[in-house]
Design goal:
The structure holds two protein chains of two kinds. Chain A has helices at residues 40-47, 70-80, 96-106, 113-122, 138-150, 168-184; strands at 2-10, 16-18, 22-24, 29-33, 55-60, 63-64, 81-84, 156-160, 188-193, 204-207. By secondary structure, chain A is of the alpha/beta class. In chain A, strands 1, 2, 3, 5 and 6 form a five-stranded antiparallel sheet that branches. In chain A, helix 3 (96-106) packs parallel to helix 5 (138-150) and helix 5 packs parallel to helix 6. The chains are: A alpha/beta, B alpha+beta.
């Protein structure tokens, strides 16, 4: 389902990153742990095709995305990979609903407001459907960014430090939601973090 | 949520900078459009009014002034010529048509022109109601005069001497409206037409030569001054004024009865007109009239066409300056759109990266920024249409009094559509660099920050 093999990335001639091989089956949930600067975000970008590896390959849904390029890669990413960032970002000019339907149409899918509503309800922010983003708290924004990552029911959800900006209470809640939703959508979940609060909650851990 | 809608949302999320860009573009383009509208209507006016007058004869003076006053009713007359000359010319078999015009009086800033029916025929004027003037003091009025001053058939009014400022009113005789003309788009619309005899009757009481030499010469200024001076004196001494002018109420009441007699008593040398217009004159007949008039001591004959061409040439530098200004503003507008987009993109770098993460291709990102430029410029163009036509209407109402011709904002030229292309081109060009920057955004690097 998700598999990396002999993956390296050169930042410069001196700094070369080498990542351990691993694979995850469909619906599996795993943690990638590592201290700052060890290449966690780089790995996540390689997994989502935002960066090209210098060697090795990344397979998602049996497609070697390291070989894909251009609009095809963008389209594949939009449809199959949902990403939750450490700090949630949105198109500020749009409402919550518009941000989520934009994610649907940019991925080449048709607009489905019902699905957006269901997702927001699942994440406890259904009242924010027509809200502007600058009116939301960080916790609310993070939930909505999770909703956006899930809106196309992607095969793979990548989360980059999704909890490090949150307090313990929110951290637990957000983590619980991500895991529940990943399960519900039968998506493979890979969380990249240095947040030790998450460590004990995952059976599968990959250390960098 | 498609790309076009996203571009639109991005524009309205920053209303003030967007409005500024639109407004600058609109002002730049509408300056050019107003210029075109004015030029178009001015040309139309010149063609409608001037094309059929092949020669104009008047008192010696500025040639252009004679054309402007005699044909276009814009400037003041150059002076008077004797009606005897007109009568003499009338015997010439080679001249098919000639029209006397006599100016100098006005009513509420609308010029009163003494002439004959040929004058109305010359501009293809048609009666809307009533009849054409036949007897002295009868007036057939232009459409705009009727609507603006609220005059209708049967109304009476008192004219005054002078074109702009009424120097003194001829309140001993009243004009009577006998007909209203249809709108013709020519000089007729703004005129009050009456037989030339009316003008003689009006001036029979106080007929000194100075009345016809108006502003523009030192002599005239002097005369005007005296007139004004006289009037102040008269105003302060009302009794003396009436005695001085021998105008009592009896006279007024018996005006109609006395007209024929009065007319008969006017000395032939006081029967004057300000110009003679010659339509359909060419070849030898034209040369004959030219020579004849130019040999008279106080007369000249002028062909309007070259004078108008000369005037147009004189206006060319001003037109060029206005065109240059409009381009200048338009180029500033282009920079405004460019800087506005660049600025808003700087804050949206992460959003661009986000779009790519969500599946948007580089081309889609490029298109979304280009759309922003195009939407802004199309809106600027629409705003420019409103501005230019409302502006033209406003300027038109001001120019109407100045040029005796109704300028309107409610005409549309095909060339205005080409400005849409200009606007779109400006939007595209100014969005090109910002769009290219967005196109080349390094997503990974942007998201890592």
């Amino acid at each position: 389902m998700v598999r990396i093999n002999g993956l390296t990335y050169n930042y410069s001639s001196e700094i070369q990153l080498r990542f351990p091989d691993f694979s995850l089956s469909k619906g599996e949930q795993a943690l990638i742990l590592g201290q700052s600067g060890c290449g966690k975000t780089t790995l996540l970008h390689l997994l989502s095709g935002l960066l090209k590896p210098d060697s090795g390959e990344v397979d998602v849904e049996n497609e070697n995305i390291s070989k894909m390029s251009g609009a095809r890669l963008d389209n594949f990413r939009g449809a199959n990979i949902g990403i939750v960032f450490q700090t949630p970002h949105f198109i500020e000019a749009l409402t919550v609903k518009e941000n989520l339907t934009l994610a649907q149409t940019l991925a080449g899918k048709s607009k489905n407001v019902d699905k957006v509503k269901t997702l927001l309800a699942d994440l406890g922010v259904e009242s924010k459907l027509n809200a502007k983003l600058n009116a939301l708290s960080v916790g609310e924004k993070q939930r909505i960014s999770i909703a956006r990552a899930l809106v196309n029911s992607p095969a793979l959800i990548l989360a980059d430090e999704p909890t490090s900006a949150l307090d313990d209470k929110n951290c637990d809640a957000v983590l619980k939601l991500v895991r529940e939703q990943a399960k519900k959508h039968n998506s493979t979940l890979l969380i990249v973090t240095h947040d030790n609060r998450l460590k004990d909650q995952f059976d599968k851990r990959i250390e960098l | 949520m498609n790309i076009l809608r996203l571009s639109w949302k991005n524009i309205i999320s920053k209303p003030l900078p967007s409005l500024l860009s639109m407004l600058l573009l609109a002002v730049g383009l509408s300056t050019a459009i107003i210029l075109q509208l004015t030029e178009h209507q001015l040309t139309e006016n010149i063609n409608n009014t001037g094309k059929d007058v092949k020669l104009v004869i008047g008192a010696k003076g500025s040639r252009l002034q004679l054309v402007l006053s005699g044909v276009f009713q814009i400037d003041n007359p150059t002076g008077n010529i004797n009606y005897g000359f007109y009568s003499l010319m009338k015997r010439n078999k080679m001249i098919k048509e000639m029209i006397p015009v006599s100016m100098g009086d006005s009513y509420k800033r609308k010029r009163i022109v003494g002439t004959n029916h040929d004058y109305i025929r010359l501009f293809s004027g048609k009666l809307k109601e009533g009849v054409l003037f036949e007897k002295p003091l009868e007036a057939t009025i232009g459409n705009v005069v009727a609507s603006e001053l609220g005059l209708k058939v049967g109304d009476e009014f008192v004219g005054g001497h002078g074109m702009e400022e009424v120097l003194h009113s001829h309140d001993e005789y009243k004009y009577k409206v006998v007909g209203v003309l249809e709108r013709s788009g020519s000089v007729l619309d703004n005129l009050i037409l009456t037989p030339v005899q009316t003008v003689w009757i009006m001036h029979a009481g106080h007929n000194d030569d100075s009345e016809y030499t108006l502003e523009g010469t030192e002599e005239a200024a002097h005369d005007e001054h005296e007139h004004a001076h006289e009037e102040i004196l008269e105003d302060s001494l009302p009794q003396k004024y009436e005695e001085h002018n021998h105008h009592d109420h009896n006279h007024h009441e018996h005006a109609e009865v006395n007209l024929e007699e009065l007319l008969a008593n006017i000395d032939p040398k006081d029967r004057e007109i300000t110009a003679i217009l010659f339509p359909n004159l060419s070849g030898n007949a034209k040369i004959g009239v030219l020579n004849n008039a130019n040999n008279q001591p106080n007369m000249m004959a002028v062909d309007p066409a070259p004078e108008i061409a000369l005037l147009k040439n004189k206006l060319t530098p001003f037109v060029s300056i206005i065109i240059a200004i409009s381009w200048f503003i338009t180029i500033i507008a282009m920079f405004s759109v460019f800087i506005g987009l660049l600025n808003s993109l700087r804050g949206r770098k992460y959003e661009i990266a986000l779009m790519r993460v969500l599946g948007a291709s580089k081309a889609k990102v490029l298109a979304s920024i280009l759309f922003e430029g195009i939407i802004l410029s199309v809106l600027g163009y629409l705003l420019c249409l409103v501005l230019s036509h409302a502006g033209m209407e406003l300027i038109g109402s001001w120019m109407q009094n100045e040029y005796q011709y109704e300028f309107t904002g409610w005409i549309f030229l095909n060339s205005e559509l080409t400005y849409l292309l200009v606007a779109i081109a400006i939007g595209l060009v100014s969005a090109l660099i910002p769009a290219y920057k967005a196109y080349n955004t390094d997503i990974s690097e942007t998201l890592s920050k």
